[in-house]
Amino acid sequence: MPVDLSPGIPATLVIGYHTAVRILNDPDHFPADPRTWQRYVPGECPILPMLEWRPNALRSAGLDHLRYRQANTASIAEIDLHALHAVVERVAIPLVNTFCEDGAADLISQYAFPLTFEVLNTMLGCTPEIGHQVAMGMAAIFEGVNADKGNAMLTDALLELVTLKRKEPGDDITTRLLRQPAELSDVEMIHQLVTLYGAGIEPQQNLIVNTLLLMMTDDRFAGDVHGGSLSTRDALDEVLFTDPPMANYCVSFPKQPILIDGVWLPAHQPVVISMSGCNNDPAIGSGEYTDNRSHLAWGVGPHACPARSVAYLIVQEAIDQLLDALPELQLAADVEDLAWRPGPFHRALVSLPVVFPKSPPLPVF
């Protein structure tokens, strides 16, 4: 399907599941390197920071991709998932305590964002001050509003983090990346961290929020808040199919014109996978989501998310901590009145207002 990602920026949007899987598993014909494409894109284009070339696994092909991918997967693999449970709990409970006595909250600004932000900063060994700059820059890039300034802010903050970790190494992903055999330069380190922050803040926050929205508005899950039969994991699996946190992404750039399903795709023009469209393709739609992992929310092929088990754990633990503390959460607005943030790639609410019976603060250990 031909689309414009931004005025004057044409692309092809893939909404067929089997076509998407074919493309995602064919990096030779559909490489992720955008450098030829971006030569002809104005520097002020609002989506450029989301798609431009960076020396990292997401925007590289061939041996470069392999080198960056191996460094990232090895660093992520050393995360102690048992300890991560405790990190999420340590962050979640004080956040809940800031609003539990009020009887109302915005679950994005008061819970989902600060939680994902602090947990990721802990995993990366990032100070709160540097992390704040990272978060502001990343939000501008995702929304395409002042994206060039956001990109500069993000780069400056991550260079500060890399410099800090070279001087003061720790038990964190940033330090482990610096120690990889790939011997990443400061510039390469910045762009590995861009990917980790890009995947670790916005999509995880959106997955928490979109899952909570489903659980509060669908009777099959609303009952679970009060002890029903469907679990948080069931809700997560359904949202990853029907309302994934990244609606459209997994971008590639064909090296030459290529015929796919009777359609010629132009050379060096973005091919964007609609995870939302593909997951809901009638050709594969069964309506059964429990224990179904065939969705494309994590991507497929050589660029698939290497941290899905980490993301599942963080999101599920964040939701369970909240619902254990406030089991009678209810949406404080009509669903149709909720506002969604701008941007062609993510599926992100502006706010998620809720009400609940006032509750005393939880003990913090």
What structural keywords apply?
365 residues, alpha+beta, Cytochrome p450, four-stranded mixed sheet, 15 helices, 9 strands
What does this protein look like?
- There is one protein chain.
- The radius of gyration is 20 Å and the shape is globular.
- It has a single domain, classed as Cytochrome P450 (Cytochrome p450).
- The longest helix has 21 residues.
- The chain has 365 residues and is of the alpha+beta class.
- The chain is built from 15 helices and 9 strands.
Secondary structure blueprint with pairings:
Blueprint: E1 2-6, E2 9-14, H1 17-24, H2 35-38, H3 48-51, H4 62-77, H5 81-97, E3 104-106, H6 108-124, H7 128-143, H8 147-167, H9 173-178, H10 186-200, H11 202-217, H12 219-225, H13 232-242, E4 248-252, E5 258-260, E6 263-265, E7 271-274, H14 275-279, H15 308-325, E8 330-331, E9 353-355
Parallel strand pairs: 2-7
Antiparallel strand pairs: 1-2, 3-9, 4-7, 5-6, 8-9
Question: How would you summarize this macromolecular structure in one to three sentences?
Answer:
The protein is α+β, with helices and mostly antiparallel strands and 365 residues long. It has a single domain (2-355), classed as Cytochrome p450. The protein has helices at 17-24, 35-38, 48-51, 62-77, 81-97, 108-124, 128-143, 147-167, 173-178, 186-200, 202-217, 219-225, 232-242, 275-279, 308-325; strands at residues 2-6, 9-14, 104-106, 248-252, 258-260, 263-265, 271-274, 330-331, 353-355.
